[in-house]
Amino acid sequence: MGSSRVSVMLFCLLFSAVLLTAVVSVCHRHKTLGIGLTLVVLMLILNVSSFLTRSYSLTVLQNSLVIIFLAFVFYHILSAVFHDDRVTLDTIIGTVSLYLLAGLLWSYLYSTILLVDPAAFRYDLVNAASEAVTLGNSDLQPLIYLSFVTMATLGYGDIVPVSGPAQTACYLQAIFGQFYFAILVSRLVAMYISAVTQKNQQHAQSS
User: Which helix (H) or strand (E) holds 159?
Assistant: First the structure.
């Protein structure tokens, strides 16, 4: 149990370091950079405090702050992607990053839901005693798996939302996943086709 909590803490610290790099990369104005750095510092303080005190309230607050931080980074990357007038490698990387950030954001949302209601999700598979297996919030791996499976609308059915908030979070993520490809990815494809068409026209006129 102790080693599990240590690994969770190390993951959160590494995760914070990665997102700090993201904040420095996408926040070009001093004001937004200051907000991002403040969120990172608060996340680190809450991470260490919840690890040392094992406080339920601090863990819920930490998860909530992580969700806010991920939404903050998501917004700035999304703004950068939409301000691009042509498709570049940075645009493609930003689009992929947005999808991954959304998956992580919902993972922490599911973790927060589990903190409030430990029976919010269950494994629909049965163990040797033919009893349902509950899902814990301390292990993010199955929650990340649930998040991306839901966002891709694969619907394996091995992890099932039971409570109302869990079901609501799942169908909202499924809707987000569909609209993400329908709007953002389609926009990139349209921009690329338009750029290629314009380039061909200019080449034809010059020749």
Answer: strand 159-161
H helices present in 84-207, as ranges: 89-116, 140-151, 164-179, 186-206
163 Rama class: left (phi>0) / alpha (psi -120 to 50) / beta: beta
Q: For residue 182, how many other CB atoms are within 10 A of its CB?
A: 10
185 forms bridges with which residues in the sheet?
none
> Model confidence over 119-166: pLDDT tens digits?
898 876 544 343 444 454 456 788 999 999 999 988 788 888 999 999
Cβ-based neighbours of 156, under 8 Å, separated by 6 or more: 149
Residues in the chain: 207
C-beta separation of 147 from 183 below 8 A: no
Q: Name, in order, each residue with C-beta under 8 angstroms of 58's C-beta and a sequence gap of 6 or more.
A: 46, 49, 50
pTM: 0.78
Three-class HEC string of 162-177: CCHHHHHHHHHHHHHH
Structure tokens at 67: 């969700």
